[in-house]
Amino acid sequence: MKKLLILLLMCMTLIPASGKESQERWHHNKYSMFIHFGLYSELGGVWEGKPITRGYSEQIQSFAGIFSDWYGDTALRFNPTLFHADSIVALAKKAGMRSIIFTTKHHDGFCMFKTATTDYNSYDATPGKRDFVKELAEACKRGGINFGMYFSLIDWHFPQAYPISSHNCDFITPQHHEFTKQQVTELLTNYGPISELWFDMGSNTPQQSQELYELVHKLQPDCMVSGRLGNDRYDFAVMADNAYPEGALQTAWQSAASMFNETWSYRSWQERGDVHTKAMEKLRSLINVVSHGGNFLLNIGPKGDGSVVPFEKEVLTEIGAWLEKNGEAIYDTDASPFREQYEWGAITRKENTLYLILSGKYPLHGEIILNTPGFKLKEAKGNYTHISQKKGNLHITVPQTAYNNTDIEVLSLDMDVTTPIAATHEYVPNYSYSCFDYYSNYRSTVSYEWEIPNRNTQLELTYTPQEIGKELVITNPTGNEQRITLDGAKASPLKVNPKTKWGKRYLCGPGSSLFDAPSTINISLDKTPVRNGQWKETNEEKMMFPANILETYFVMQEVESPVAQDVLVDVGAGNGIEVYLNGRSVMKHLNPYRCKFREEKVLLHLQKGLNQIVLRLYNRFEKETGYLLRPSDKQIVYKQRYTYTVSEEDKKQPAIKLQIKQNNLPTQHTDTELHNLTVRIK
Ligand code: GLC
Asked: Domain 336-417: which CATH class?
């Protein structure tokens, strides 16, 4: 019997966890250490005696304009005798971090591992003959924490790659792609299990991304791939540097943060300030990320001699002490089950326990009011003076002492879960993250959800000519899946009020290189949305004009509407488009890869009085871009009835949560483009 058990245990360790399991494990890690360490650490942000203030210090070669042979000579003196992998692992563990992600190769192309692909590596080119990847991989194994790898998809040293550019998001030549594959193969073959491969920068074609994604999974099925591989081939999405999404996402995701936004690698002249303030700032970021279901990756930049900067060590230790006490509210938790954002702090959840983390501002009269549909309070623990639940609202009074400057407190509430979690009666969007590359990524709307009673229910779908022929899938947690084709059978004209007045149209740009942007904007003619631009009046409904890559333009149009009404509008843009109505984003998506121009329709719900329509046009790949903005010729929508038939399983639920999306989208992160669809219970 004992033998059988041992055999069984042995087998279990040999069987690789399924993709889903590794995803779960990764998701529950929550907090990890990022390390930027390479030749640039030796320079510490200084070239020829001068601090290089432009750009990140790990990119000093490009920002200081250093010849490649001179930069490469740094290797001759790069001898980090104080780099002790075991002490770094010990620090990560003390800090409460569950894995370490190390820069195996940054943009400079210098490999921090022994490789057969180039002698531009730490083993062959430095006096110490060291393989830092090996040292860390082994130390992580000894210390029992995960090891992951950062890998730059651009390479300033490989002769057949694109030369240094201002944006680091260059295309990848076929030879460079092959070179990357060889290096990735070495990395995933020689260093044991790798928890994540953190690809960065460059701009792969969809095929290149696909090939690398498959290669990683062929070599190590459980290795999680970062979203910066591009083209939605990923296991976890990565936000832009030091950025946080506006809410929870329906995908695994991570925010990477540096100690100071200005650099990732060591910078000798960095003003660091006070340890406690920094620790609290980063702890708040960790809480914010985790309460939205993400993982937090906090970076350190060791010095050229390999030692960790004492300031960074102290910050990590302070956060670690907080986690030691309150880790229950962070590790293995899920996002808050509620969509609201709170000024008083944030919520995380583990099964039937809600953790209220008091990381925000002291609430008015010390009272936190929390709408908790589906949750009934059983027991509360923590620093509160009074708690009660009335009609689904929790009222918690906390003393001023719960918000002191030196600590962040946690209340834990044990709850009974009564109805489906986070029940919503409205038709609300669910988000994922979709990307071509570092600049061209955004929070995509992948489905909508709402709740219906647990019986056959008639739904009315309203949509525009653009949606005709699309197939929709409706799913629910019981597995009941139904499909509807939008047949356009019943037209219903929109009666646009003839007194509706389209005002002047203005164009402004070029601006920001990022496609992602907040979902609300504040635009006016006396304030331009880009740094050096001016609003220019334009009479054209449609226009194409020359543009550089990675440029954004804005079009603004005012519409005076005598009544609140729906109007169908034709819009168009190049590689990506966002439409705002009265300051709020109503539609946003990247267009298919390398699509020069795309026209589409958007149904706008105008308010009575003055309305403002804004288009944000995004150019990633082309030499010209353009816009289209005009009321559609045919003002028409379609209405279609559909009876949602419940299954036996559905009938057992108190209510049914439905999700709707377009069928057969290229990836699970692709925007469902159903912004014109509304679904009502009849
Ligand atoms: C950016 C930078 C790079 C840095 C990385 C970390 O992509 O180009 O220098 O390593 O962000 O998130």
From this structure: mainly beta
Architecture field, domain 501-634: Sandwich (2.60)
C-alpha 284/C-alpha 110 separation (Å) is 34
- 372 falls in which pLDDT band (50, 70, 90)? confident
The three-point CA angle 258-45-245 to 5° equals 20
The response to whether residue 241 sits with its C-beta less than 6 Å from ligand 1 reads yes
Q: Which CATH architecture has domain 428-494+637-681?
A: Sandwich (2.60)
Q: What is the mean pLDDT of residues 491-515?
A: 94
Mean pLDDT of 527-545: 91
pLDDT at 377 over 50: yes
Q: Is residue 437 within 6 Å of ligand 1 at its C-beta?
A: no
* Nearest atom in ligand 1 to 200's CA: 7
Q: What is the dihedral of CA 278, 279, 281, 287, to 10 degrees?
A: 160
Gap from CA of 200 to ligand 1 centroid (Å) = 7
CA–centroid distance, residue 391 to ligand 1 (Å):
48
- Amino acid, single-letter form, for residue 230: G
Tokens of 402: 């719960």
- CA of 139 from ligand 1 middle (Å) equals 25
Q: Which of 68, 237, 246 is nearest to 157 (CA)?
A: 68
Whether domain 24-329 has CATH 3.20.20.80: the reply is yes
559 beta partners: 502, 611
Q: Is 570 in the pocket of ligand 1 (CB under 6 A)?
A: no
The answer, yes or no, to whether residue 420 has pLDDT greater than 60, is: no
CATH 2.60.40.1180 domain locations along the chain = 336-417
As a whole number, mean pLDDT of residues 106-121 equals 98
pLDDT value at position 247? 83
The predicted-structure confidence for 343-360, as pLDDT tens digits, reads as follows 999 999 999 999 999 999
